[in-house]
């Protein structure tokens, strides 16, 4: 009897990507093997890990489910499962609209997937199980990581904010923090396996500690990461300006392995719009944080999320966003046109902005940010940086005889392939010779090549026979070590 195969399709934020690594680990622990790359639904179990934040997420899901229906008819024993935020939100609706679905599970009980699949098989009827609160912290579940050298580490789940455009808190619940000792133990175990870069992950990472009443818990966690031998790079996403305190800036600046990179969601530069969004900070506070970060870390690269066309946004409000962007000089901005999300207060607000007005403002903002990104990247020319070699970052690397990777500030660098063999996870020192708006080039010979334990781990992993490829991701592409994070106009971790 041949082994049963599985495929996981992931949409949305890096929290979902992390959950999908756990779902893959659970299925492999239950005896399934990953379906070969390009199987496109031709697997014994197909799991959709959904997002409720992205526009038309439900239409996309039901379209994909519809395409699998005839495949399931032809393939006895095939099972389809739907999990994630849309499953948490729609629950029984999914089985009504797509009665060929076998399992529906929510964001709080991903650990139940293998059991629910077996129950659906035995009882020959759909299993819908949506927990209202977290049953097990995701990081306690088995995992199949998508990278040998970089890893997500979840420090909290849920969110205590009530942003009017975001449905995530309703679907992932109130913030629940993980014990610091458990977080550090997981990081140490990952480093022992060869991981050299970790990203601390949470819906609002710098609110970490609210469970235990320690306002400085997150900065203490960053400093503790600095003491882990072999851990070269620490990143985190996403913080909230309300909770971003001076002790965190100090910890970033004083902890060598915490990278000089910050993703700080702005959403709007208008105080009026921020108030309507229920974002508990104002333009002056936001720019003050940016100023402090730059004073402590002059070479820090700062990125952001911005929503254009929130209900009631006037031309004057939009100009305040443009002003904030000019002042902040983001290395990168993930910009989104506001669209209604059912179940959010903003969806029923008056003064919804006409689509053509939103589009015109969006184009102006994108043009401004493109100009700033290019100018900021040009400042990198002549700098010498250490690039951690990535796997599959540059689509043209084969044709150009280049490799790609991330600088400490998370900028994407394409560099000339060194004469000696280098592997993903190794570190190459290069001089930046050219800048484009979204990447840097290092066209000269490498100044140094450092083979790492992370490279060893990648080599060991790729030497072992692997079934198929990585998790199939929705757009925009998110995964280790893509730029962090690509927000979706929802909460600040997208």
From TrEMBL:
Comment on bound cofactor: Binds 2 [4Fe-4S] clusters. One cluster is coordinated with 3 cysteines and an exchangeable S-adenosyl-L-methionine.
Protein name: tRNA-2-methylthio-N(6)-dimethylallyladenosine synthase
Catalytic activities: N(6)-dimethylallyladenosine(37) in tRNA + (sulfur carrier)-SH + AH2 + 2 S-adenosyl-L-methionine = 2-methylsulfanyl-N(6)-dimethylallyladenosine(37) in tRNA + (sulfur carrier)-H + 5'-deoxyadenosine + L-methionine + A + S-adenosyl-L-homocysteine + 2 H(+)
Residues of the MTTase N-terminal domain: 4-122
UniProt subunit comment: Monomer.
Lipid metabolism found in the keyword field: no
Domain Radical SAM core: 145-376
HAMAP family assigned to the protein according to its UniProt record, in alphabetical order: tRNA_metthiotr_MiaB
